[in-house]
Amino acid sequence: MRHPILVMFCIGSAVMLSACNRGSDADVARAMKSVNVIDETNLSEVMLTVGDPAEAVAYFARASADNPDRIDLKRGLAKSLVRAGRPAEAVKVWTEVVAMPGTVPDDRVNLADALIRMNEWKRAETELNAIPPTHETYQRYRLEAMVADANKNWKKADSFYETAAGLTTKPASVLNNWGYSKLTRADYAGAAKLFAEALTHEPSLFTAKNNLVLARAAQGKYDLPVVAMTQTERAQLLYTAALSAIKRGDVTIGKTLLQEAVDTHPQHFDEAARALAALDGSVARG
């Protein structure tokens, strides 16, 4: 009589053990999933920052295809496409992102950025206008300034550039852009001031150095500004000043600056040497 009871006990124990195992398996699965999410997040961050752009595109394209509802993977794909120099494809993906549940204003800002990279200024302006005015970020106002520049709305551009510069701890790039805007308007003194300010924040920014030389040369100031520069940079800046001088009709000064650029460069400065030879040939023929 005890055998059936023993059998039932064994069966019950087996069921209980099976249930315990299933619970244990589920716990392990959940734990592994959490680890995978952490690993995936870290990998995504690496791909978006230091990873090879082409590899990042391949990674996010594959991950996004496997998880089409994951907006974070779509964002990663769009950002990677921009990094890889493929803005047209990035625009397509950002357009999908802004239509997905969970989209945020920054997604539309990034869409506008990709559109500007394609010179689609009007559509970029439309996207920026669709962003709530309460969304006040450096990137948003930097793009707003660029659009205002494209529309030659100088007052609005100045306002947006100033706001953008105040919203970042690294304003050198936006100050350089603002200065270039002033340069195109022939406000050379205002441009020079902004380029110099940019260099106080990022002394190694060569584009700001070159633009500063252009702004000064446009005012007839051909001597190089007092800024940190390498010997190679000095030669290149002298070359910029020389071409500006020649363009303004100050040919003798330009020729002197070209010769100084050739003499200053630590290696052979082919562009300056050719410009000097062409100038000498022109003078000889004249």
TrEMBL record:
PROSITE patterns, sorted: PROKAR_LIPOPROTEIN (PS51257)
Pfam hit, one: TPR_19
InterPro entries for this protein: TPR-like_helical_dom_sf
Keyword terms, alphabetized: Signal
Signal peptide positions (record): 1-19
Matching SUPFAM superfamilies: TPR-like
Top-rank lineage group of the source organism: Bacteria
The UniProt record lists the keyword Signal: yes
Name of the featured protein: Uncharacterized protein
Originating species: Phaeovulum veldkampii DSM 11550
Phylogenetic classification of the source organism: Bacteria, Pseudomonadati, Pseudomonadota, Alphaproteobacteria, Rhodobacterales
